[in-house]
Amino acid sequence: MISEAVIKRLPRYYRHIKQLADSGVTRVSSNKIASVLNITASQVRQDLCNFGGFGQQGYGYDVVKLKNELAVILGLDKEYDMIIVGAGNIGRALAGYRGFRDDGFFVKALFDIDPRCSSINGIKVYEMDFLEAYLNQNNVDIAIIATQKDSAKSVADSLINYGVKSIWNFAPVELEVPEGVTVENISMSESLYVLSFRSKNKQ
Amino acid sequence: MISEAVIKRLPRYYRHIKQLADSGVTRVSSNKIASVLNITASQVRQDLCNFGGFGQQGYGYDVVKLKNELAVILGLDKEYDMIIVGAGNIGRALAGYRGFRDDGFFVKALFDIDPRCSSINGIKVYEMDFLEAYLNQNNVDIAIIATQKDSAKSVADSLINYGVKSIWNFAPVELEVPEGVTVENISMSESLYVLSFRSKNKQ
User: Fold this and answer.
1) Is the ipTM beyond the 0.95 threshold?
2) B74–A196: do the CB atoms touch at under 8 Å?
């Protein structure tokens, strides 16, 4: 059983190691990783040990090998089909974000109760009524909820009813989901509150 | 010294308690809070004790009082002037996001190396060259970096040079900042990796 804290650090390791690999670095020490990610070197060694990433004394980690190991652990060795529900500011921004594709995440369709454009960045926007039919006919690994707060819960219920197993929630509300369904919340407000908290407590 | 884990939970408490207050709920037990936030009731009691939020046995917490206490702790009892650097998809989405205003965060200006619109949602978009002059003439509590990865570091350096003390970073890169400057990273990719990790390890 991997702790929540480790799970949250994993993506940061991956992103950093990937950046190193992309810039041609072949090996890196736990000290170097630790200083960039602002954690201790012993924490780095312990975390990576959990996942079979073994550094060698005096050599450090093989960057490419570590990157590939982390990618497998994070499930980034496959491709994901995604849909976005809600074509407002957030939904549109997500549809236009190129970073996802580099990691194998592909936005295939958007849904909105009032689709004012037929496509955004080349991705089709459908009426909400078409959601069930779409999910019956297409593979969807991840559904993104980018609706207003008030409709997020009913959208999540529909998605789960129609068989969606992974939800990425951008609406500012805690979603309760049944066993077997994974939800990851990304709350901008929460991040902003952390910033205001830190700013206040520094002064 | 409050632990990172507690700091990260604080905004979730605040958001939940605020929702309760908005819907007219006057008191709530630690068990109720715990079940919604998916943590233990003893954790809730311990966390809130740190901040002077004292529940009464058999009564629970006074929702409005707790909300106000949390708001003060999080620095949400004042208003913040913000600017956004980068008027791409993310910058535009943030400029249009209404949730910030409800919490006292106001986007006053956008900056871009190539401003294709003179304003977005009624907020002026300036050339990057005007950043220094703007920061000299206006109060800016928080600068949001919504640029591409490659320019995020130099933008952060400029902001810090011109006196910005709090940075909210949406670019997918770790920023190193000097003592006295607060940075909060919101990484969509990291959140997505956590989701793919959880999905993979559930199957």
Assistant:
1) no
2) yes
